Amino acid sequence: MSGRAVGYLRTMNLPQRIQERGSEFLLFALTPPRVTVSSQRAEEIANLTRQRLASLHLDGLVLYDIDDESDRNSAERPFPFLPTIDPATFWDQYLKDQTSSVVIYRAVGKYEESDIQAWLRAQDVDQVLTVFVGASSRNKQATTSLVRSQDLWAQVRPELPLGGVAIPERHTRRGEEHLRLIAKQEAGCSFFVTQVVYDVNAAKNLVSDYRYECDARGLTPVPIVFTFSVCGSLKTLEFLSWLGVDVPRWIQNDLRHSDDTLAASYEHSVRAARELIEYCRRLGIPFGINVESVSIRLAEIEASVRLAETLSHVLRR
Amino acid sequence: MSGRAVGYLRTMNLPQRIQERGSEFLLFALTPPRVTVSSQRAEEIANLTRQRLASLHLDGLVLYDIDDESDRNSAERPFPFLPTIDPATFWDQYLKDQTSSVVIYRAVGKYEESDIQAWLRAQDVDQVLTVFVGASSRNKQATTSLVRSQDLWAQVRPELPLGGVAIPERHTRRGEEHLRLIAKQEAGCSFFVTQVVYDVNAAKNLVSDYRYECDARGLTPVPIVFTFSVCGSLKTLEFLSWLGVDVPRWIQNDLRHSDDTLAASYEHSVRAARELIEYCRRLGIPFGINVESVSIRLAEIEASVRLAETLSHVLRR
């Protein structure tokens, strides 16, 4: 698979940049195709993805590991849950090339300890980074817990860069997400990735508290990757809320009353990303930008690519 | 008193502009001197105030009516409560001139009904506007309630422009401040004034919900005046919190870790005001800017005047 793909990602070593606490990198996040697609269709999707992203010169891809989060809340899921190809498989079989980097998510609750160990051992530390995600609610029965997975990583493959999830919304509710980040960092995390950011103020509050807590403890902050997306319809907006993303009322109102929801959300995301980029630079926090395509609608995918393109010019790369 | 003062405020009719739902006006808010000062000292303060504000060509002054708000919360008041000259008295005896406008606050809970009626009858509707403020907590025994005061106004002096207080923080907590604004508007309020804004997002949420609720009811929005201030010390920051102003964590952190709290807060206020001005213009909401001097320290007063000066150039006046 990989021959045709060489060059669609930057020939650079994201794992090394992360370990050196680099900044201003650009990622693009995808959800693999559904498990029900044929291998031919999966290959077509991979090729299309490469073509779409070719001009962006990304520093890496992010591949999500989708879990059935129906326990997340009691409200009906706006889009049905459809199992997707394992991101590690999608990468290995369809997207991988010799030169580029990928951040592979692991919804660790889905896997046996032995599977996690075997997978960690098999990864190329020059190309692959991973983010462990715990259960989406306390009530969920996890096969392997987040804490146990971190232990396995430390035993088996501590040289593989491990990332954690950062949730500004949780900081808004409880005011201690910065302490969770620091605990994860002390457990070995060398970077963080947020969920989709619509509430810039919440993200700034988290970054600020994290920065000053690091100072107080004599720790060096690790890179935080902020995720942005476009939202092309009120149904996607509803889905963001279901996922736990705080969309400020005024932005919700703007999107609801706009003649072109997609264009309005694109403008909001550009503005939010610029504000966070400027803020992180001022604060001296290493950071990256991740653009996520949350929908499978073509217009939304294309707008996501445009968003990444626009932000690639804002970043000092 | 007034002869020397002619011209330090704009020769314009703020009451009329408010009734016509004008926009982009600039106010400056003061607390009158303590009741213990001599009349000579009060006159000096009034003259100093005129000199300081002369170059701003304000559209009007705002004079606060300070109440002992020790019931506001159980935490100790960071600055002691010191009774101040009645704002109506300070205006009439020291600051008034023939050509300018003033917004006189009335903490209605302090007054007998007959006093409120008499005061309303005595005002010149071409110069004076008023804002009624209710009790600072539900537990406080008010001599006259806010609702009763609005009734008195409607009976006695409905042609005197009546304003209400808008509290974005309350919208954050309960999500219905826009409905309170509309109820006040239906009771006769023709403008609103916010408390000091540090959380721009909260202010935008309120304005947005207010705007779309007006649309839904076929009402025309009335001007909202946003108040900004500088904060020159951590004690003033503490006082803002005590007053119920939400200062986002990242701004608190910035102020706490800055070498120059006053300069940092000035920058934050300029930025916040610009963002709100731009937002209100986009949304088509009539608005004004009010710069409040919250401290009696000279450096903070001077920075407030600079803030008003800077914002006067941002406004399209």
Word description of this protein:
The structure is a homodimer of 317-residue chains. Chain A is of the alpha/beta class and 317 residues long. Chain A is 45% helix and 14% strand. An eight-stranded parallel β-barrel of chain A has the order 1-2-3-4-5-6-7-8, surrounded by five helices. In chain A, strand 3, helix 4 (113-122) and strand 4 form a beta-alpha-beta unit. Residues 1-6 of chain A have low confidence and may be disordered. At the A-B interface, helix 8 and helix 10 of A face helix 8 and helix 10 of B.
Helix/strand-derived class of chain A? alpha/beta
Total DSSP E strands of chain A: 8
Q: How is the main sheet of chain A built?
A: 8 strands, parallel, barrel
Give the helices and strands of chain A as they follow along the chain. Answer: HEHEHEHEHEHHEHEHHHEH
Total helices of chain A: the number is 12
User: Helix amount of chain A, in percent?
Assistant: 40-55%
Oligomer: homodimer
Radius of gyration of chain A over all CA atoms, rounded: 18 Å
Largest interface: A-B, 18 and 18 residues
From the spread of the alpha carbons, the general shape of chain A counts as globular
The parts of chain A where pLDDT drops under 50 for at least 5 residues are 1-6
Query: What share of residues are in beta strands of chain A?
Result: 5-15%
